[in-house]
Amino acid sequence: MEPARSGCKISPVVDIVFSRWTTPILWALNAEGPLRFVELQRRLGSITPKVLTQRLRQLERDGLVRRTQHLEVPPRVEYEITDLGRSLAPAFHTLAEWVDRHLADVEAARKSYDDAGLPMP
Prior knowledge:
Blueprint: H1 11-17, H2 22-32, E1 35-36, H3 37-44, H4 49-61, E2 65-70, E3 76-81, H5 83-86, H6 89-115
Antiparallel strand pairs: 1-3, 2-3
């Protein structure tokens, strides 16, 4: 994958991994192991079936999630994180630590900005 034209080497990965539902999907599959579609949807809460299907297809295409269809009656399909997807766990862990240390600072900055009556960006 060639670097983004903006000069930011990580842009292509940020676009893939940190889209709206990708991180929670990967987080759930990494924590829980293989899950059926409905189980995954339940764990994510408000995601629609259409969006979950789209995100899972994209993650499968990117090699981060594996879809396994079991030939039984009724048919059973499971999704699991791949080794490539699991290799993102240290990055997620680092981000989770950052959130633990700095989310209150971000919220305080937002409140200060909002209290000053500045327009939303």
